[in-house]
Amino acid sequence: MARVVCGVDGSKSSVEALRQALAAARERGASLEVVTAWHFPAIDMLPGPEDVPTPADLEVQAQRHLDETLAAVGPEATAGVDVTTRIAQGHPAEVLLNASEDADLLVVGSRGRGGFEGLLIGSVSHQVVHHAKVPVLVARSPRK
Predict the structure, then answer these.
(1) Is-above-0.90 flag for pTM?
(2) In the chain, at which residue ranges do the beta strands (DSSP E only) sit?
């Protein structure tokens, strides 16, 4: 059976990526795996040692981002598509590249939750476009 993988992080771009991944899966008669990754932030990016999150905190946050993204597209959008979800520890690009190794398509948003909003494409999107072994669809969130 055909398989589509979609990376989400709760950003507007990842909501659009999920919408497009659902459409692609439906069109192909494929299953869809929705993946959210979490990793420890660089220590020098945290205000102080008391702000270091635990692995459990990060996993809960990742689950919240996944749930919010699924809720944003609504249950009617997933009708007729075999959807599974996965939360994985690791750098998002690496997690998505590994998850998509045997997929038919990888879908990501153009910009995630990271800082540099002026960039056309985010670092994770850039990495998967250049390193994926499968076709990659980069979804842009609609302009308001």
Answers:
(1) no
(2) 3-7, 31-38, 83-89, 105-109, 136-139
Residue pair 31/2 in contact by the 8 Å Cβ criterion = yes
Residues sharing a CB contact under 8 Å with residue 75, sequence separation 6 or more, in sequence order: none
Strand order in the sheet with 136-139: 83-89, 31-38, 3-7, 105-109, 136-139
Please report the DSSP string for 64-100 in residue order. Answer: HHHHHHHHHH-HHHHTTS-EEEEEEES-HHHHHHHHT
Whole-number Å distance between alpha carbons of 24 and 28: 6
Q: Which of the 8 DSSP states describes residue 21? A: H
- Residue 63 is which amino acid? Q
Joined tokens for residue 122? 């985010």
The predicted-structure confidence for 83-139, as pLDDT tens digits, reads as follows 999 999 999 999 999 999 999 999 999 865 454 444 444 578 889 999 999 999 999
